[in-house]
Amino acid sequence: MKTFAQLGIPFPLFEAPISETSDYLGISQCEICEQREQHCFRLNNGDHVVVRCPQCQTENGLRANCPGTFACQSCASSLTLPGRSKREGVRICFSCLREGKGAIGKDTEFGAVWWENALLGHTHGVPGLKAAGFETVILDPEENWAGVRLSQEKLFELLRTPSFSTWQGEIWLFCCKSPMTYIGEWQSVSASLEEEESRKLFGQLTAEIEEFPNWDWESVSNPDGGVSLYAFQCKQCGHYRANYDMD
Known about the structure:
With 247 residues, the chain is of the alpha+beta class.
């Protein structure tokens, strides 16, 4: 199973096989820079195309799946999305994505992260958020809604990373005040491991999952089991974490 690094287009936060993302479109023409024969990704619902206003030079995050015109957030000049099929999203090549000309929105354990959240330097938040070791910011006192404050650099790095495919929707995890690196669904992660090493890693991944069902590693490894375990590693401290869902 090939990875993006093996294709020569590495992502620091995504080391899983390419088959584990639905964002990748293969070789196509980028609708941002119009270059042909590029590794392309789809910007769609929850994603943004970053367009610089020709009048005032302000960068604007435009919703990738919304046709029509947008008003510049600074000078109100009219802006439009590149490409033809706006309702189906916008194709963006690896280079344009990594240069910040697009943003792939993420759902995380600390709330959603969209382009505007990265600008503000905090996640969108969730009610009653508990985030030990992270600085929190109260976003709505009446609803007890809070997010986590992170650097723009780290949040934009997350948005320049493909999402991973799940049954119920991705939840990106954090460690050391940074997004963790997604290393793959359990079956792909454990495929090259010996049994003893596999059991040890499984224990590390599931140790922090609250109310984790009483399944052993063999059950989760069963492709017909209807349970998926999504594994992450912190590249700063080496710590492993995971979350899971079911079909």
